[in-house]
Amino acid sequence: MKLLAFWFALASALLLFSLASAATVEHTFTVQNKIIKRLCNEREIVTVNGLFPGPKLEVREGDAVIIHVVNNSPYNITIHWHGVFQLFTAWADGPEYITQCPIGPQHSYTYRFNVVQQEGTVWWHAHASVLRATVHGALIIYPRSGKYPFPKPYKEVPIILGDWYDGNVVDIYDYTLAVGAVRVSDAFTINGLPGDLFNCSKQQTFKLKLRQGKTYLLRMVNAAFNNNLFFKIANHKFTVVAMDASYIEHYVTDIITISPGQTADVLLKADQPIGSYYMAASPYVVGQPSPLFDNTTTRGIVVYEGHTSSLRDSKPIMPILPPFNATQVANKFFTNITSLVGAPHWVPVPLEVDENMFMTISINLERCSKNATCLGLFQQKFSASLNNESFVHPVGKGFSMMEASFYNVSGVYTTDFPDYPPVAFDYTSPKNALDFGRMYPSKSTKVKKLKFNSTVEIVFQNTGILNPQSHPMHLHGFSFHILAQGFGNYNATRDRVKYNLVNPQIRNTIAVPAGGWAVVRFQANNPGMWFVHCHVEDHTLWGLNMAFEVESGPTASTSLPPPPPDLPKC
Ligand SMILES: *[C@@H]1O[C@H](CO)[C@@H](O)[C@H](O)[C@H]1NC(C)=O
Ligand SMILES: *[C@@H]1O[C@H](CO)[C@@H](O)[C@H](O)[C@H]1NC(C)=O
Ligand SMILES: *[C@@H]1O[C@H](CO)[C@@H](O)[C@H](O)[C@H]1NC(C)=O
Ligand SMILES: *[C@@H]1O[C@H](CO)[C@@H](O)[C@H](O)[C@H]1NC(C)=O
Ligand SMILES: *[C@@H]1O[C@H](CO)[C@@H](O)[C@H](O)[C@H]1NC(C)=O
Ligand SMILES: *[C@@H]1O[C@H](CO)[C@@H](O)[C@H](O)[C@H]1NC(C)=O
Ligand SMILES: *[C@@H]1O[C@H](CO)[C@@H](O)[C@H](O)[C@H]1NC(C)=O
Ligand SMILES: *[C@@H]1O[C@H](CO)[C@@H](O)[C@H](O)[C@H]1NC(C)=O
Ligand SMILES: *[C@@H]1O[C@H](CO)[C@@H](O)[C@H](O)[C@H]1NC(C)=O
Ligand SMILES: *[C@@H]1O[C@H](CO)[C@@H](O)[C@H](O)[C@H]1NC(C)=O
Ligand SMILES: [Cu+2]
């Protein structure tokens, strides 16, 4: 009895302590234009607080976050906190027309949310039009205890991989989408800098200083628009400790493969001779014939302290990057990793499934309207779909989808997103690449309704229509377990037995293999309207999206609260 009372007192004390130490992190994000020079040209870009990449947001697990977004740019904007669960705070999630109407020029909105039950590196980015190109930054969630499940690194360094369009990205995309074509970026970047392989860019090269013998934590984000990236540092190995803010079994590798939307926490030990080394990133692209892509390489320089001036003229050592189509390299990285069972915030795989879905992912075409100029394949426009539905944002309806859900407004979206494609076919066969019977999806704004706390399993099946590509599918509001993945067509009889129900990766963005499939499972324990989309910017713009409408639970504390009073109006 005494002992029990003691434990109760201790537990209460600890609870009080942890409550007391939870802080409020409050910042103002002023969205504003700024002129910066890259690739020989001065360009006006949209930034947060004049910074590119944007400010690093640092919180501790359990903190309340308040971000006042003041829009002094000429564009509509929203901010999404990519990877943050937004438990019962769906109004702060950000995707335009899904959870909110955009913040108009000269307007503001305050995002209020708690960061709970997760730690590691995630990021924030604009989720309106194409503004995420330059409006993004790292969001670092430190453990509440201050302890990592690995030795404390000497220093932490964000590595944000991105790309650069040599022009106004909104104007570029207005034109590109109007003609239905593809316009690739002009450079990749490391922390906003293209590096010395580009003209006028010697001074635009990211430099990382290392002290020999120390271990650094690289907090990596792939913020690039359209490309998976390989990342290497000459002569160095990495130990990956977390992906998408979920701890993994330590994984030693000399190369990181990272898809748009994904993050990785990577230990780098400065265990090489004092000298200088390049870090470099180049694209991983699949498809036969390979689609149009930016085939440039960005690089930065790693310099050890004590590297003397007499050696300064010697060139840094350059890593050997794999060829752009090295699927084996990418696949090894994506499949050879398991979650760290029992690590902070680790969750077991839910075993009972309530909803089974099978989603085909396709690149498609849209017929060119009369008199229009179309510069996509076959003089038509590119499109994209899930289960033959190409998602249209409900612009001009007066409400975002989640407001429509909350206020019972009809006519904004429908709840008939199909659980299966209309007809089964040989999804990945190259013979179907030019099957025009499957080329033109319907355009719709369809969601799938889910009961609170139901468990959903999705088989993502890539198709070979037009061109098989790797699609990084991102789910808002949740992380999912990746039960299995493979090439060719998913076959339940053959593939269900391969499910890893013990220690699968837990992610918010899965790179579904080109010409292959992946199975994910999550528990819908968070009411709201949760966007699901390919994080390749072109593909989401073409309609490769859907949403889950998760109903409220039985109690007030498991229900979606009313929208905040300052939620922007359409
Ligand atoms: C650099 O400039 C030269 C001369 O204008 C040009 O030929 C070359 O293509 C440029 N290289 C890059 C990477 O832009
Ligand atoms: C990139 O693509 C262009 C055009 O296809 C080609 O001329 C060039 O050699 C390629 N560069 C690299 C580095 O692969
Ligand atoms: C990669 O592309 C090259 C041509 O650029 C081609 O010769 C090679 O077969 C491709 N490799 C794979 C694995 O597709
Ligand atoms: C990772 O690769 C190693 C070496 O090929 C293999 O022994 C191991 O089973 C793989 N692990 C997973 C989880 O795929
Ligand atoms: C196409 O252009 C012609 C000639 O300019 C015009 O008469 C016609 O109305 C246009 N059609 C459409 C659908 O815009
Ligand atoms: C929306 O409809 C549901 C079910 O019909 C009802 O319980 C709820 O009160 C309605 N909400 C509003 C805001 O009208
Ligand atoms: C996809 O939808 C379009 C438009 O509704 C329809 O014409 C087409 O037949 C559908 N494709 C399949 C394979 O059902
Ligand atoms: C959701 O379901 C799980 C069992 O799958 C249960 O443990 C949990 O308490 C439920 N959560 C809520 C909020 O009802
Ligand atoms: C699925 O796999 C089973 C077991 O390997 C096999 O017997 C069956 O033929 C496969 N089905 C198809 C459609 O390939
Ligand atoms: C900006 O948002 C308003 C309100 O939703 C909308 O009517 C308008 O079309 C948007 N402008 C652009 C350029 O998207
Ligand atoms: Cu995609």
TrEMBL record:
The lineage of its organism: Eukaryota, Viridiplantae, Streptophyta, Embryophyta, Tracheophyta. The keyword Protein biosynthesis does not apply. This is Laccase. Residues 1-22 form the signal peptide. Keywords: Apoplast, Copper, Glycoprotein, Lignin degradation, Metal-binding, Oxidoreductase, Repeat, Secreted, Signal. Pfam families: Cu-oxidase, Cu-oxidase_2, Cu-oxidase_3. It comes from the Eukaryota. It comes from Phaseolus vulgaris. It catalyses: 4 hydroquinone + O2 = 4 benzosemiquinone + 2 H2O. Belongs to the multicopper oxidase family. CDD domains: CuRO_1_LCC_plant, CuRO_2_LCC_plant, CuRO_3_LCC_plant. Its EC number is 1.10.3.2. It is found in: Secreted, Extracellular space, Apoplast. Lignin degradation and detoxification of lignin-derived products.
